[in-house]
Structures are given as C-alpha cells and as structure tokens.
C-alpha cells in the first residue's frame, strides 16, 4: 500500500459538513444514482463517497449492487474499507464493512473477483496467533450476503517483502506490487493454476518504468494495465497514471502518460479501477482549482471550503467514460508504427 492510507469512522464527515447518518438522500439506480460522466472526469458521488476526507480505492461487485471504497483520516493514523449496498431499491448509508472495524490495522485496496466470490485487499493485520503483522495481500470468500473470515493469501504471493494493491483478470491472474530490498516498488504477476497461485514474475520495463511504480490496475481481459509511476520526464506531477497495452503474444507497449484529463500536478494519483461493465474508469486524485477560480484575496471562508469540498484539498474518487482509454489505445498504435 503506497502512502499508507487511513481509517475514518463515518462520524468524521459531520465535522467536515458532509453527509451523516440519517441525512443522506434516498439514492437508487446504478452507481448510487449518479449521472454518468462523459470524457471530462467528474467527482464520483460527492457528499456520499467523495466527502472531503481522503478517499481512494473503489471496487464494485459484478452485479453492481455493492460498492466498496477506502477512506483515510487522522493524519494517516487509521485506514478502513467502507461499503454501501443496494437494498430494497435504495442504497444504504456508507459504513465500515465487516472485518475492517479494528482501528489497530490498516485495510485498503479492495478488489473483487469476476465471479463475485472472492474479495482481495491489502492489510497489515497479523496472521492468527501472532501479535504483529506486515504488509500483505489478504482474501475473503463469499458467504451468502457477507464475506467470510479474512486469510493471508500466503506464499508465493505474500512473502517477507511488502505486497499490496491486488488486481485480477477474469481468469484469476493476480497483478500486485512488491517492494524490493532496494526500496523500489515494481509490478508483479502470478498466474492461477489448478486453484493455486504460481511463483510471481516481474513485469517487463515497458510496464515497470520510472524510478518506482506501484498500485497497477489490470483490465479484466488483460488487454491493458494502468500503472501509477513516479520519476519519468514526461510526468505532469509527482506520480502520474500511465497505460500500457498487451498484445496477444504477451508483449507490452511502452507505457504512455494518460494525459492532462487524468493526470495533474497532484501528489495523489495512485489508485485506478474499472466499473464491472467496463464503461467507466475510476481514479483517485486531488486537484487545485485552476487559476481563474482563485479569489482576488484569500479568506478563511474560502480556505475552509477548499478543505471540505471533495476533490480539492483531500483525495477523492473521480470517474470518466472509458472511451478515453480507446483514444489512448489508438494513439499507442500510431506511436508503435513510427
């Protein structure tokens, strides 16, 4: 898990002037009833999911009836995964999901298998019988309407090195980040064979570019991968989202910056995912208002608004139509022929 994320009980929202228990509107329809975005990214579910506190990492069940996301609070002291569910025709108020309530352990980066039966996530909780944990990938199995007890995914994926940000293809292949002894973070892949994960392989330089890269999201059909990358000359900020396309022979295109609609000067762009239907790209960011929106003079009221408004001072989840990826794919093909 990059830039360790933090837990927040939902009551924190009241201090920020956001939605609290009993005050959110009745929401129905897909994606919390939000108006779908076009090719211009929009903050997702402002005041409900994106509230002005640090928010990142979104995962949605294949039937679209459960939405999970991570929240951070208290100076990166706490981290947990929230859930809202579509029940009786309306979405429930977001709450801390089962197995994620213990404030001692950081939990983040939810990832749900294509069949909806397995829930992968990052945690630093200890294994049963131990007092101290480390950074590993954990998994839960579906049990009716809930998730079973978490278990460490174990070797060969969970090793003595830190591993985080699981991402799955439809056939169960697992992509994840591993921090090497040098401190550099790189993207690895482990194939699922006969129900067991195989020895991980590090992805090639086309994927693992820059000084470090981490938290990569792989498309369900394994046709592309989105890689938050730091230390490239073509970066627009601290860490940017890059994309690499995979050919049928398992070779990858050179990672391409996803451009100014997705990337900014923010230090907080390192968590992306797709909606189950493939129509929308979700990504985490925080964005300073453009110069033309600055006031002539600073005021305490304006500064407070920056702190409370989703997508500005603290990280929020944005979404955009995935046609933006199609345009990057076409650009990549043109670049490859030069």
What would you note in describing this structure?
The structure is a single chain. With 338 residues, the protein is mainly beta. It has one domain (12-336): Neuraminidase (6 Propeller). It is 8% helix and 34% strand. It has helices spanning 12-15, 300-308, 323-336, and strands at residues 42-43, 54-60, 66-73, 78-87, 90-91, 95-96, 107-112, 118-123, 136-143, 146-147, 151-152, 163-168, 174-179, 185-190, 192-193, 196-197, 201-202, 212-213, 217-218, 224-230, 239-245, 256-257, 272-274, 280-285, 316-321. The strands form six sheets. Strands 2, 3, 4, 5 and 6 form a five-stranded antiparallel sheet that branches. Strands 7, 8, 9, 10 and 11 form a five-stranded antiparallel sheet that branches. β19 (217-218) and β20 (224-230) form a beta hairpin.
